[in-house]
């Protein structure tokens, strides 16, 4: 694979690069192939392309819905939008299911076939090439670094999936319509253990309640359509909340923060991105009695009373205890004011 314009004299410089955004995360980068970039004279091209290329990896944390958007889809949008489709995507560490899942988005960003460069035996020559993707922050775009915004990205998603709603319901505009509340459910860790009770309480307050448990095989178009039809999205901290990208403007995100002193993570991953997306954000932090961990550990155990002591053991310990082994039984009486606050916001 050759870029015909490097701006570097032949033979003067060479380096290696892994075209994935989480350079500081060793676990992610271990799953990314290294590429050598070398300035050299090259005379033979099997295929001469007329448009620039973007090389990126589908390794790393791809397959996790949050990282699919934060590490790949949004950075790819930032990097490629300037070409208005006149760019070819070259992927390494290819995952065919990933291409299939995001084909609708990829087709809107590039008019050309995707090249699986690891399987190529011919030399492709491009007028220029971008190696790696531009990344700003979790699930977002920094407008000081780009002419694009998350508003632009969300409009792009609406066009891509033909989503009908640009704005959430304003209660009072049509008294006959009930606001739709989407509850993201999970089957393994961080699941609601009393979802039926939560649904009954929300329904009694005037919500039309919908539940969804998306997985890796769920059609993204179907997910987008369901989420876009709703006015409030709630779920326990986790990848499912990423689907807020499909909500209409002024919709509300309710993040349930589990036990574990993960406030900063909750803010970085979903609170700040929600506000950047012109969504309203509410947060509900559970008490120890609402956590399944209280049935495994006594109330005075450090895991319950001092989560920061677990943080000192490193991220793997935090993830294992508070993210991988915790479910939530919401105290619906305590949670009720949060649902009422969301209704109040939908009146504004």
Automatic annotation (TrEMBL):
Protein's UniProt name: Glycosyltransferase 61 catalytic domain-containing protein
Species in which this protein is naturally found: Gossypium raimondii (Peruvian cotton)
Compartment(s): Golgi apparatus membrane
GO molecular function, one term: pentosyltransferase activity
Keywords carried by this UniProt record: Glycoprotein, Glycosyltransferase, Transferase
InterPro entries listed in its UniProt record: Glyco_transf_61_cat, Glycosyltransferase_61
Annotated Glycosyltransferase 61 catalytic domain residues: 150-254
Major subcellular location class: Golgi
An annotated GO cellular component: Golgi membrane
Bilayer topology annotation: Single-pass type II membrane protein
